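Project standup — Tuesday

K.O.: blocked on the structure for the chain from last sprint. Re-posting the sequence here as requested.
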Amino acid sequence: MSMRAERDIALCAIANGVIKSKVMNAMIQKRIPYAEEWHKVPILQRRKFEGAKEVCIVITHHEKAAEAKVQIGALDEEIRSRVYFDLKGLI
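H.V.: unblocked you, prediction finished:
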């Protein structure tokens, strides 16, 4: 079931729970609205997503997407490198 409102967009995918928490906390601190959806990862794409069978898709309002990307970009490289903006084949 999708939590997306009409003007919301899928921003990125995250395969790791710790990384997801850090990204969500960064968004909360800047008051960027978000929701999450869980999507199954096709077998042939699992390598790209750390071998995960399922990933969290972060949803945000389309007017906040650029701000959200800036906040994610400001996080440590260890976190940024595990946030996937290419959602082809997932949604």
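K.O.: great, moving the ticket to review. The two ends are 13 Å apart (CA to CA). Strands lie at 8-14, 35-40, 54-61, 83-84.
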